[in-house]
Amino acid sequence: AGNADPTPASFEWSIDTTTPESQINTNPTALSASAEAKFTFSAADGSGSGLASFECRLDSSEAAGWAACASPKAYLSLSDGPHKFEVRAIDLAGNVDPTPAVFSWNIDTTGPNTQIDSHPAALSASASTAFAFSGSDGSGSGVASFQCRRDSSEPSGWVACASPQAYASLADGHHEFEVRAIDQAGNVDQSPA
Question: Cβ atoms within 10 A of the Cβ of 8, count?
Answer without folding.
Answer: 6
